[in-house]
Amino acid sequence: MQDYKFKIELSVRDYECDLQGIVNNAVYQNYLEHARHEYLKSIGLDFAECTRKGINLVVVRIELDYKFPLKSGDRFVVGLNFEKESPVRFVFYQDIYRLPDEKLILKGKVTGTALNEKGRPDPGLMP
C-alpha cells in the first residue's frame, strides 16, 4: 500500500453484496464518496456548508478499475490523494485495499470541479 494524504478504514455490510456474495460494483462509489467527504472534513472543508454558501463541489468524471471483489465482513481501507489538475478541476486518486493482507481491490480517479451559484466552474471556489 502506497502513502496517502488520507486513509479511512471501513467494513463491508451484508446488504452491500449482490446475489453472487460480493460487493455490488456501484457500492464501491459509496465507499469512495464517503472517504472524499471525510477527507474534506479533515482539512476543514464542510461539504454541506459549502453548498449552503452556494459552492457546489461536483463530480464530472469517474474512472474505476476493479481488481478483486470484496465480500461480506471484509475490512478494507480507502486511500486518497488529492491534486489540482487545472484552475477549475481537481482530482482524487483513490484506492481500496482489503485488510489485513493489503490486497488491491480497486483503483479510482475521480475528477471534480467547484460550481458557482450560476452553475459555472469558478477557480476562486476550488478547495
Fold and architecture overview:
It is a single chain. The protein has 127 residues and is of the alpha+beta class. It has a single domain, classed as Roll (Thiol Ester Dehydrase, Chain A). It has two helices and five strands. A five-stranded antiparallel β-sheet has the order 1-3-4-5-2. A hairpin with a 3-residue loop joins β4 (89-99) and β5 (103-115). The protein starts with 5 loop residues before the first strand and ends in a 12-residue tail after the last strand.
> Order of strands side by side in the largest beta sheet?
1-3-4-5-2
Beta-strand proportion: 35-45%
Order of SSEs: EHHEEEE
Low-confidence stretches: none
Mean pLDDT: 94
Principal-axes shape call: elongated
CATH architecture title: Roll
Pfam families: 4HBT_2 (PF13279)
Protein name: Thioesterase
Organism: candidate division WOR-1 bacterium RIFOXYC2_FULL_46_14
Family: Belongs to the 4-hydroxybenzoyl-CoA thioesterase family.
Characteristics:
127 residues, HotDog_dom_sf, 5 strands, Thiol Ester Dehydrase, Chain A, 5-stranded antiparallel sheet, alpha+beta, YbgC/YbaW, Thioesterase, 4-hydroxybenzoyl-CoA_TE
